Every structure is written in structure tokens, then in C-alpha cells.
């Protein structure tokens, strides 16, 4: 019975919703990086928020993976730009330190909440 529940809560491309086709993944990832919540992204694509969140919260969700990737990619790109400029700019070096602290805090928080996953 537990395996059936896990199977129902796991992302499956064969049972993915039809509206998934209208999502431009690069644009979706940019929205995630800019700080939009999943519910807001659902509104942007004119998708029912409850249905969107159902699929977003599934195990191995394609929606969650692209959301996380967008946030990571944007932060990494911003961090790399800061590293390049930090050697010549004190303000940029301070911003880089704040970004590092924020990332370390989020990683530590996720380790506590999710057990290091």
C-alpha cells in the first residue's frame, strides 16, 4: 500500500498534464530566479494554482526541478559576475559576502529540514 501511495505521488511523464506543453522552460526558470513563487508562475501561465501545486509538489517533479534549476543558475551567474568584479570593487566584494552567507544559510536550513537532501 505504501508503494502505491509513493507511486501516485511520483512524477510520471505519461500522466503529466496537457498544460505542461505550453511552458517555455527557459522562461519558467527565469521567472523562478527573479523570485516569483510557484503559485504566481501558475497564474502567469493561466494554470489552475491548485493543480499546478499538486504537480509541483510531486516526487521528482519536472516543475520543481526546473524551478530549482532557475534559482540556482541565476544565483550562480550572479555570483560568478560578483567574483570577477570583487577584486576591483569593495562594494561588490561586500555583496558577494552577503550572497555567500545567504546561500550557506539556505543550505544549512535545508540540511536540517530535509536531512541533507
Rg: 18 Å
Number of strands: 0
Q: Considering DSSP H and I runs of 4 or more, what fraction of the residues is helical?
A: 55-70%
| Number of helices, where a helix is a run of at least 4 consecutive DSSP H or I residues | 6
Q: Low-confidence segments, ≥5 residues, pLDDT <50?
A: none
What would the principal axes of the Cα set say about the shape?
A: elongated
Strand content: under 5%
- H-E string: HHHHHH
Secondary structure category: mainly alpha
How many domains comprise the coordinates? Answer: 1
What is the distance, rounded to the nearest whole angstrom, between the alpha carbons of the first and last residues?
Answer: 25 Å
Mean pLDDT: 86
**Can you summarize the main beta sheet?**
none
Written overview of the protein:
This protein is mostly helical and 117 residues long. It has one domain (23-114). It has six helices and no strands. The chain has helices at residues 2-8, 25-33, 38-44, 49-56, 62-86, 90-114. Helix 3 crosses helix 4. It is elongated and about 55 Å long. The two termini are 25 Å apart. The mean pLDDT is 86.
Write the layout of secondary structure elements.
Layout: H1 2-8, H2 25-33, H3 38-44, H4 49-56, H5 62-86, H6 90-114
Helix pairs in contact: 2-5, 3-4, 5-6
Give a quick summary of the entry.
The protein is mostly helical and 117 residues long. The protein has 6 helices and no strands. The protein has one domain.
Highlighted features:
mainly alpha, 117 residues, 6 helices, 69% helix
